[in-house]
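Lab notebook: predicted structure, single chain.

Context: the supervisor wants predicted structures on file for every construct in the current expression panel, including those that have not yet been purified. This is the next one on the list. No modifications to the sequence; it matches the entry in the shared construct table.
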Amino acid sequence: MASGEEVSNKQVIFKDYVTGFPKESDMLVRTGTIRLKVPDGSNAILVKNLYMSCDPYLRVRMTKFDVPIYFSPFTPGSVMSGHGVAKVLDSAHSDFKKGDLVWGVTGWEEYSLLTSTEGLFKIEHTDVPLSYYTGLLGMPGMTAYAGFYEVCSAKKGEHVFISAASGAVGQLVGQFAKLAGCYVVGSAGSKEKVDLLKTKLGFDEAFNYKEEHDLDAALKRYFPEGIDIYFENVGGKMLDAVLLNMKMHGRIAACGMVSQYNLEKPEGVHNLFSLILKRVRMEGFVVFDYDHLYPKFLDTVLPAIREGKIVYIEDTVQGLDNAPAAIIGVFSGRNIGKQVVAVAPP
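Prediction complete. Output recorded below exactly as produced.
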């Protein structure tokens, strides 16, 4: 394929802002064209996308909002974007050259012209699957690392509870907690996911929250002495139950609240007084605030992968045509492990 050649470019288009639960029809797969050369005078890079990451936070970007946060809503009629792994085909940027492998925010399309390289990381370690940079070695991995080690400051012997524990972030938090010598329990939404947590991911216990009619009683069953650390991924009724079961001076890392993303009117939380009674610290965090720790993160995680101390579960679909169904599946909990879209071979 010659440099500067115009080629077809399959893209996933966001149609319009969503109220309630999103549908595949809220997205459109179409084919455009792109010239495989960076425009003269720019500082951009042109990449071929290899893997796309399907993440719960993308649901928030499907809603129109005016409050400034760390990402912007999608623009109706435009290409969706998210984290992915890509190969540089052409570059006018001094930090990147043709042939480099990178991960960061890119378009949901076969080829992307990236005019901003902020938050784009060069991939130096290729002895692990490249798809890991959408999850274990990418944004979800950094999220798990920052939330557990920096926000929670876990100590050996502490009791840790993780909601949405089989997802891209939760499965790693559980393994970090086990490596730190903690007792770890996770919740998930199916028997298959619960079995995975206990048999492959090393959790001490796990339960299917859909089978528990009383979440407070379930947590008391697994944590009779209370919870030291709660890694919060779901919000709603689970958070309310956890608040009643926290230990004195416990810590809650608020990472996400996926149970609330599709609700037109979010559920209220009723047990916040427990934060005061038990001197609990609850802290929200955003992974991008911890980008400076990425080298330290790699120094911790890469040896653990190579030694088999950390495993990672991926749920991969092939091709951009299947991307809308894949992201909708994440919102409903259909995926088992980290949801990845394989766009093209490396």
